[in-house]
Amino acid sequence: MTTPTVLATHETRGRLHELTVIDVRTPGEYAGGHLPGALNIPLDRIQSALTDIRQAADRGEVLVVCASGARSENACRVLAENGITTATLSGGTNAWAADGHDLHRPQGTRAVWGMERQVRLAAGTLVLLGLLLGLLVHPAFQILSAGIAAGLVFSALTNTCGMAAMLAKLPHNRTGAADLDATLAALRRR
After folding, report:
1. Active-site residue numbers?
2. Smallest Cα–Cα separation from 42: which of 154, 172, 158?
3. Residues with Cβ within 8 Å of residue 132, at least 6 apart in sequence
4. Helix, strand, or coil here: 10?
5. φ and ψ at 171, to 5 degrees?
6. What is the C-alpha separation between 53 and 186, in angstroms, rounded?
7. Which phi and psi angles does 30 have, rounded to 5°?
8. Is 39 helix (H, G, I), strand (E, B) or coil?
9. Cβ atoms 144, 129 nearer than 8 A
10. pLDDT tens across 105-162, in order?
11. Which is nearest to 40 in space by CA: 163, 179, 189?
12. What is the β-pairing status of strands 20-23 and 5-7?
C-alpha cells in the first residue's frame, strides 16, 4: 500500500487542468462548492467506482478531495488497498477557498451544510436532549449525553466518524444511482 501524495493548493492550482479531481463529499456538500472540474463520487460509493477510478489513474494523476482532508485520506487508503495511486489536497476545499481560489457550484442544485457542521448540530442537540431529559424526566437519560461524548472521543482517536456516516445516508446528502452513473460516464470520457 502506498501513501498518497499530498499537494498544497498552490501546487494543485497550476496542475488542475492535468488532474482528474474526485470529490468524495456528499452531493449536498459538493453542490455547495467544489474545485473546478471535480467529479462527485461520495466516499461511501468509492468501492462501486473502483474500476473507473483505476482506469482514470492509468491515464493520469487522480486527486481526491473533501472538505478538510480526512475523508479524502480515507478514500486514498481504500484506493491504495486496491492498487490505485492517488494524491490528496492538503486542507481540502476549505484550504482551497481560504487561499482565494474559486469554487464551482452546479446550477439548479441547492447547497446543504457541510458534514462537519451537520455532525456538530446533531451531536450538540443529542447532548442537550440527554441533559434536559436527565434533569426533567429521569437521570438515566444522561447516558445519551455520555454515549455521544464517547462517540466523539472515539471519532477523534480513530479519525473516523460514525455519526457522519449515518448523516450521509439522509436524503439530502445522498446521490441517486443516475447521478453516480452520469459521474462515472464523465470519468470514463476523461
Report:
1. 66
2. 172
3. none
4. helix
5. -55, -40
6. 11
7. -60, -40
8. strand
9. yes
10. 877 666 677 788 889 999 999 999 999 999 999 999 999 999 999 999 998 888 788 8
11. 179
12. unpaired
Give me the torsion for CA of 75, 178, 173, 49, rounded to 10°. Answer: -10
All 3 cell numbers of residue 140?
A: 438515566
In whole angstroms, what is the distance from residue 175 CA to residue 23 CA?
13
Give me the torsion for CA of 67, 69, 72, 77, rounded to 10°. Answer: -160
Q: At what angle do helices 70-81 and 50-59 cross, to 10 degrees?
A: 90
Spell out the residues 6+ positions from residue 56 whose beta carbon is closer than 8 angstroms to its own: 20, 62, 187, 188, 190
Cα–Cα dist 100/102, whole Å: 7
Nearest one of 69, 61, 60 to 25, comparing CA atoms: 69
The pTM is what? 0.73
DSSP output for 65-79 = E-SSSHHHHHHHHHH
- Sorted by sequence, the CB contacts under 8 Å of residue 125 that are 6+ apart come out as none
Q: Which sign does the torsion angle of CA 7, 11, 12, 18 carry?
A: negative
User: How does the average pLDDT of the chain come out, rounded?
Assistant: 89
